[in-house]
Amino acid sequence: MEEQINKNKNEKIEIDNQKSSEDLVNRQPVKKSKDSLATFIILGVGLLIILTILVLIGSKLQNSKNSLTEKDIQNQDKTVIKIEETESPTSKPLTKEEIIKQAFYYPNTISEQADDDFDLVLYTNDSVTTAYKYYEELVDLNNWELGPSGMATDKSGGFLYIAQADFRADLNVTNEVNNKYGSTKIEIRIDPKEEIAITSTFNRPSVEPTPPMDTELSQAPDEEGFILPFSNSRSITREDLTGLTEWQLKIARNEIYARHGREFVHQDLSCYFDKLPWYKIDPEYSENKLSPLEISNATFILNYEKEINSSLIDKDTGCK
Q1: N or C end of the chain: smaller count of CB under 10 Å?
Q2: Contact 159, 150 (CB under 8 A)
């Protein structure tokens, strides 16, 4: 009896222990599930905080960069303005030497060359006499003190020496035959006497000299008046053009068109070709009548004229 009671008691204890174990097993997943959810929530909040911090840092860096860029642009603009203001040639007054050079600059200059011995080396197609008389008028207009001066008996050159209290200048005018820069050369040496203030006047003649008609207008190298009689039969070379005057170059280029009866707008060309027996105006003239060789030669001469800065390319010197 007693054994039966003990047995029943043990079974009851075993049943109770089994229920407690089942309850413990059933409760653990719930607790574990709750712990995992809390962990995820904490991680999510932490990640959100980190992202927020990163966004704020990035925004601050961008604002700082934009501010720096705007400041750099403003500084750059100020720098450019400052450079422009300091380097602008209009803001610099002319030196005494520059003023004197302006006064001596020949109005009909077609070329200017550098020379260590002279302050100005100018070329013009005006005659020596025309250029020399211009400077005589310049001296008279300003009442400058004129020293030794004079023209050569053959009119091939002349010289003037100006001896003012505030500057000195000597000037040579010479004939330059077949010079590619111009037929007359003007060399001017200036002593500005910088230590002395300007007292002289530097007025220029009101009427600028006009180029005289070239004597080459009536020149013709052969009986028919052609400068380059072969320009329709072979290619022209640089050697063919070297030594020709600007007027001869203009004639050589346009005689290619004249052969086919072109009527010229420039009076100097019309007067020249009208005197030649072979020249006849063709009312039906067209540049299509020119051969490829002739077109090539005309272009070659024109390019050479541009190279030497010919003053007669588009200039009509008139009929004389």
Answers
A1: N
A2: yes
Question: Is the pLDDT at 282 greater than 70, yes or no?
Answer: yes
φ, ψ at 159 (rounded to 5°): -145, 155
pLDDT tens, 240-253?
898 889 999 999 99
| Averaged pLDDT for residues 111-140 | 88
Please report the DSSP string for 84-125 in residue order.
HHHH-GGGSPPPHHHHHHHHH--TT--EE---SS-SEEEEES
Residue 139 near residue 162 (C-beta atoms within 8 A): yes
* Mean pLDDT, residues 143-153: 92
Give the model's pLDDT for residue 42.
79
**Structure confidence at residue 14 (pLDDT):** 64
Q: In what order do the strands lie in the sheet with 111-112?
A: 111-112, 120-124, 184-191, 168-175, 157-163, 150-151
Cut 0.70: pTM above it: no
Rounded Cα distance between 67 and 57, Å, is 15
- Does the CA dihedral 146-182-220-261 come out positive or negative? negative
Please determine, looking at this structure, whether the domain spanning 215-307 carries the CATH number 1.20.58.1690.
yes
Which of 253, 180, 177 is closest to 215 using CA atoms?
A: 177
Locate the domains of the chain by residue range. Answer: 2-89, 96-191, 215-307
Q: Give the DSSP H or E segment for 188.
A: strand 184-191
